[in-house]
């Protein structure tokens, strides 16, 4: 199946610092989504990207859909304690077919574990 | 704000038993999904469902798994004969439409197979 390489695997930062993480793929993606997951909970959608080059913000979060359609990054500015968690990129590969008229499942990265030190 | 709900939050079962995990997707959404997450690992796609039939399934979704929309609101995942390796968090998700593939996830059901 499709693979997403997400980095870094974990980040240890001080409160107030900016954070940057990214995902890359060897194949083209139609959609990039960024999720945050807290322990024992489901992923929460942060940002959705649909066009190559698209840059979208959601508060202190900014994400971009790479021009090559094979990568995406997520930036968090001025981190606060509640930003702690695991951030996942997810995407919809171009090659999958919409069989039956329905939408295809997302391919997830392995996550970036964000830890904020006081 | 509308959200996806799942029951039960935790299910413990014996190996070989059947389990049914339940989900209520967001009411105006048309596409439904099941994913699983083994402890400490990434989220993996199992199956998508639209218009009362399976749209796509992964290689994980073998003959032991089935999905159903028994009424207008519930969406279920059945595992016919559970194995130890089925222990995982199972997430239901839903999305509004084909072009808008923003999938919203439920809180998950933790399945423990003993």
Question: What topology does this entry show?
Answer:
The complex is a heterodimer of chains A (118) and B (114).
Chain A: E1 4-7, E2 10-14, E3 19-25, E4 29-37, E5 44-49, E6 55-58, E7 61-65, E8 71-76, E9 85-93, E10 107-108, E11 112-117
Chain B: E1 5-7, E2 10-13, E3 19-24, E4 31-37, E5 44-50, E6 53-57, E7 65-68, E8 75-79, E9 88-95, E10 104-105, E11 109-113
Parallel strand pairs in B: 2-11
Antiparallel strand pairs in B: 1-3, 3-8, 4-5, 4-9, 5-6, 7-8, 9-10, 9-11
Describe this structure in words.
The complex is a heterodimer of chains A (118) and B (114). Chain A has strands at residues 4-7, 10-14, 19-25, 29-37, 44-49, 55-58, 61-65, 71-76, 85-93, 107-108, 112-117. Chain A has 118 residues and is mainly β. Helix content of chain A is 0%, strand content 53%. Chain A is built from no helices and eleven strands. In chain A, β4 (29-37) and β5 form a beta hairpin. Helix content of chain B is 0%, strand content 49%. Chain B has no helices and eleven strands. In chain B, β9 and β10 form a beta hairpin. The mean pLDDT of chain B is 93.
Task: Give a nutshell description of this structure.
The complex is a heterodimer of chains A (118) and B (114). By secondary structure, chain A is mainly beta. Helices cover 0% and strands 53% of the residues of chain A.
Averaging pLDDT over every residue of chain B, what do you get? Answer: 93
Main interface pair?
A: A-B, 30 and 34 residues
Note the overall shape of chain A. globular
State the separation between the terminal residues of chain A, measured CA to CA.
40 Å
Radius of gyration of chain B: 13 Å
Put simply, the count of helices of chain B is: 0
Task: Tell me the number of strands of chain A.
Answer: 11
Q: Tell me roughly what share of residues is in helical segments of chain A.
A: under 10%
Distance between the termini of chain B: 37 Å
Number of helices of chain A: 0
How much beta of chain A, percentage-wise? over 45%
Uncertain stretches of chain B: none
Mean pLDDT value of chain A:
90
Which structural class do you get from the secondary structure elements of chain B? mainly beta
Task: Please compute the radius of gyration of chain A using only Cα atoms.
Answer: 14 Å
Order of helices and strands of chain A: EEEEEEEEEEE
* Portion in beta strands of chain B: over 45%
């Amino acid at each position: 199946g499709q693979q997403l390489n997400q980095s870094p695997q974990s980040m240890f930062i001080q409160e107030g610092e900016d954070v940057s993480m990214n995902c890359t793929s060897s194949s083209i993606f139609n959609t990039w989504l960024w999720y945050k997951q807290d322990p024992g909970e489901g992923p929460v959608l942060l940002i959705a990207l649909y066009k190559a080059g698209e840059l979208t913000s959601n508060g202190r979060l900014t994400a971009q859909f790479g021009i090559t359609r094979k990568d995406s990054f997520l930036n968090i500015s001025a981190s606060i304690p509640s930003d702690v968690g695991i951030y996942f990129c997810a995407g919809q590969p171009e090659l999958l077919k919409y069989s039956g008229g329905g939408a295809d499942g997302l391919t997830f990265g392995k996550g970036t574990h964000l830890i904020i030190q006081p | 704000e509308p959200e996806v709900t799942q029951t039960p939050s935790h299910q413990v079962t014996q190996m070989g038993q059947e389990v049914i995990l339940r989900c209520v997707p967001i009411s105006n959404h048309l596409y439904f999904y099941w994913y699983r997450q083994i402890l400490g690992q990434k989220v993996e796609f199992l199956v998508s469902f639209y218009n009362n039939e399976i749209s796509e399934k992964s290689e994980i979704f073998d003959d032991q798994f089935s999905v159903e929309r028994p009424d207008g609101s519930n969406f279920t995942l059945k595992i016919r004969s559970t194995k130890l390796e089925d222990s995982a968090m199972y997430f239901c998700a839903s999305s509004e439409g084909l072009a808008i593939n923003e999938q919203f996830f439920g809180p998950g059901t933790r399945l423990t197979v003993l």
